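note to self — DONT lose this again. spent like an hour looking for the file last time. sequence + predicted structure for the chain T wanted, 474 res
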Amino acid sequence: MEHDTKTPPYLTSDKTSFAYVSARDRWPVIVTGAIDDTYRSVAQCDDAEKRDEGKTIIEELARLKYEMQHDRPLTPIRDDGHPDIALYNAELASLGTPTWFAVPWLYCECYLYRRVASSFALSTHWKSYDVFARQKINTFRSSRPAVLELAARYKEIVEADRKASTSKGEETGEEAQKKQLLFTEMCEICLWGNATDLSLLTSLTYEDIQALQGSLARKASEANILVNDLSAAYTVLRRAQQAGKKERRVDIVLDNAGFELYVDLILAGYLLSSGLATHVVLHPKSIPWFVSDVLPGDFAALLSALANPRPFYETASEEEELQGKTPAPLAEKEEAELKFLFAEWANLHAEGQLLLRPNRFWTHGGSFWRLPAEEKGLLEDLQGSEVVVFKGDLNYRKLTGDAAWDPTTPFTKAIGPLGPGSGINVLALRTCKADVVVGLQPGEDEKLRDGDDSGARKWAWSGKWAVVSFSEGK
């Protein structure tokens, strides 16, 4: 609140913004999905007490949906024992008595997921239930073609890095250029992996998901990266490597589970095998968040799928059974490449080179401008990293305060206290799925609007365009 930018935030009352579209169209669908998922689990439950408690949660979610659709005032979140509840309710009080269609977008969207989480947290039998887990793992399964393609590519890269590490002689200019190009490719794979954000793509078919992934789709999308600061980030990592720093850490503030977590792990493994990092710290969320965000359990579920890929990929889903479809069997080579990934990542995790470090700050209701005041310990921890990678649209919104900046505003200014002098090197990998955007050239936003005089920045809503923004804070 007092630590936020003075630039006005996007509001759900603004009918020209994606905030209004989200509140009116997306959020009711998401809550309905949560109700349906809980209902399925309740129906499969043998324990009468747990079943009754599940029905109560369903009633609470239905009431939440009603309040949202009828523009009722937001009510204080019930105390479930976590200190962030006081922060949420204090901010709500400072806003007066806002209704769902007249409130800052960022706060309201975070409030929605925090309120859903409190219904489960206050229960006895459903405390650890992830209402979005089923969707997340099913979407990863449907990403099979891209998963297999990247598994083969990753194995080649790791084996090439191991061979190169044993060779003698000075690095040639061509070799140095190849290394930077590979870094760029790995980061762009990581960037476009965000195209499978479940909170936005809830109606896509398997075929639609597959079309968003794969090398041909990535190549076609390179022209759609409006800001690309990857070379600056690479320079920082390469400089630390060449200086012989004993510990070179990269942090990744995660976004989505499923295929995106998979490509995040591809990037993490590449950074470690290439020597650009000695440790990678992954920052998941602590509660089910924005449908598809990573929880620690999603990491375990993904590794489990890779450890034994045949049952995961060859067992028909409920939808496939209804359609009479049988999944194609994995080839032996494909199975071996997936198991190679599991062995690599499980070993890196066991050796302490690949770490998970959740923090409740990531699910607070405000922007990252509040980090120095609200979570000083986390700030100091991130300052020990060579580069902190913030994945996805929500992290970008939080970095920039989800404010209505002029689109030519420098990224370094828009991230406020995490910019120059913060002690943190920030790299944001973001496909655009919200109104806020900074760092554009003069006239670029107008060109992308393409004569649309509605006042809406609709080009920034679909995930077609991306920005890769870097701030050197050290």
